[in-house]
Amino acid sequence: MSSLSYTVIIGLEVHTQLRTRSKLFCGCSTDFRPDAPNSQTCPVCLGLPGALPVMNRKAFELSVRTALALNCRIAEFTKWDRKQYYYPDLPKAYQISQYDLPFSSGGWLEIAADDPGEPVRRIRITRAHLEEDAGKNIHDETGRGGDSMVDLNRTGTPLLEIVSEPDLRSAAEARRYLEEMRTLLLFIGVSDCNMQEGSLRCDANVNLHIHHADGSKTATPIVELKNMNSFRNVELAIEYEVKRQASQWQKTGQKIGDVPKQTRGWDAERGVTFAQREKEESSDYRYFPDPDLVPVVLTVQQIEDARKQLPETPAVRRDRFQNQLGLTAYDAAVIIDQGPEMTQYFEHTAQLCGDGKTAANWVTQDILRDLNAAGTPVSEFPVTAEILGTLLNWIREGRLTTKSARDVYSVLKEQAASGQSIAVGDIEVIVRERKLETVRDTGALQAAIAAAIAAKPEAAADVKSGKHAAAGPLIGMIMKQVAGADPKAVRELLLKTLADS
Amino acid sequence: MEISDVRKVASLARLALTEEELLTYGRQLTGILDYVRLLDEVDTQNTEPMPHAIALQNVFRDDQRTNSLDVADALSNAPRTDGQYFLVPQILEERSGGK
Questions:
Q1: Which of A138, A171, A329, A390 has its CA 20 to 30 A from that of A418?
Q2: Which one of A410, A434, A458 terminates a domain?
Q3: Contact residues on chain B for A276, CB-CB shorter than 8 A
């Protein structure tokens, strides 16, 4: 068959655990404790008869904050429903979720296009709703059909489900959407987004629009992908699934509607997706309003107040770094994509240094390189923003050359590595001990220049007649005399002195 | 109520019913539905949908922790446990949480 032409259609469902101390409907801890299974449960989250769920205010506030940051409309009236299904990780046999009246809908998140030259892509958000998490099933891995084990610590943890429209057009785009979502959630402080611990999870709905020669299109059956526990796996799973669906189309010609929606899992070790169950129809969940919970009603004023309190989003911050601090779009993105801690480190450094670009150069080069090499988070990095910002300010004030500042930085790192605690005051000590300070005493410098000219009259004459390359040995002599002199300043002063003589 | 609907409801409720029981419950369910259908006689054209039986809204609790049950108590109603986990027959299909 000739090469197939098609468009990839992807929608993502992101589940993120909200950063609360207690669960959504009870006071049990939300800590991640796989080492102590079933130690964080109570009659409410175990679904024992007669228990009454009561909504966690903080969870609702974090939900509204997230939806506002995603440019969603906030409903003035919202309620919770029961979604019925049987599964061992769901002791009540229903999940408290939101069906027809979610608290938010109709937002968007902007991401960079595949081609950096293209304008940003605005991915529409269908809705975000607040629900409770299920527990965790642990399967017998021996293949001998042993029991599955159920840990209900996670049951009832507040979970925000964020559903996108099928606006994503490639696996790479899906990954960028997730990365941008994670950065946003971290910056507005609603989730720790730890994929290993399951506090950020993602399912992908994928299908193809096959293009025919006559200009018409056919949609292939939609497949829901699960079990993708890293950004890289999301990208790989979708890439695999796109190829599989294209080849399936060529083999069977099956269109959307010909077969029920299928769920496929991602097997990261084999690098393939595999069929799981047939998707139950939505009506089979038999949603109905949960009589144990009362609706939440917000006034327009309350919604506006929440909007005013919204922390700066990563997108706004990227713009500010470019417009106010003079960073390139690239540097702004590199710093912000590292997360809130690194961004705060940079901002503090830039503030003390007084020059955003210098701070950005150091942070994106020296600091990121050393952090990656050490494998430590910036919060544990010994050269704090206070130290770095002060050091860079010395450059800005002309007290240190960039090269000398690098020497001071190296010494500081060595001292920290050898177990000493380092502080801002150490900069001054190191500079003094190693005589690194730029000599601004032009008297001393002029004396050294005069001495060098006297010692090497031929070289001086060559420089004066325009052979600037001959200045090297003279500058070398002067630098030896005056440790800490800025070579650039020495050269300028030498040329000026000779020109004036 | 059609017998196929009764069979589907039974299956969703994980109830294994005999043909005889399907007929019995089918009759009973039909009776219940007919009774509830009496409400159709009320004109609700100008009535706001009621979200809840009691006129209450915005009931919240603060985000504070309270004591959880001891593991032994949490597991005490389970048919089978290993002292740490609830034990259930092997699950064949995986299905991630939150769905």
A1: A390
A2: A434
A3: 93-95
Distance from CA of A57 to the nearest CA of B (A): 5
ipTM of the complex: 0.87
Judge if A296 and A350 occupy the same domain. Answer: no
HSE value, Cβ hemisphere, 13 Å, CA-based, for A457? 1
Chain pair A-B, CB pairs under 8 angstroms: 158
Inter-residue contact A21 to B65 (CB < 8 Å): yes
The whole domain housing B34 covers: 3-39
pLDDT at A142 over 80: no
Same domain, A430 and A449: no
Q: In Å, how far from its chain's centre is CA A105?
A: 23
Specify if A271 maps to a domain. Answer: no
A384 touches chain B (CB under 8 A): no
Which chain A residues are Cβ-neighbours of B9 within 8 angstroms?
none
Distinct helix (H) and strand (E) counts, chain B: 3, 2
Round to whole Å and give the CA distance between A286 and A288. 6
The total of structural domains in chain B comes to 1
Within-domain flag for A163: yes
pLDDT of A369-411, one tens digit each? Answer: 999 998 989 999 999 999 999 999 999 988 888 988 999 999 9
Dist. CA A80–CA B57, nearest whole Å: 12
Nearest Cα residue in chain A from B97: A134
Nearest by CB to A22, which of B54, B65, B80? B65
pLDDT, tens only, A260-310: 888 999 999 999 999 986 655 556 889 999 999 999 999 999 999 999 999
Does residue A83 share a domain with residue A67?
Answer: yes
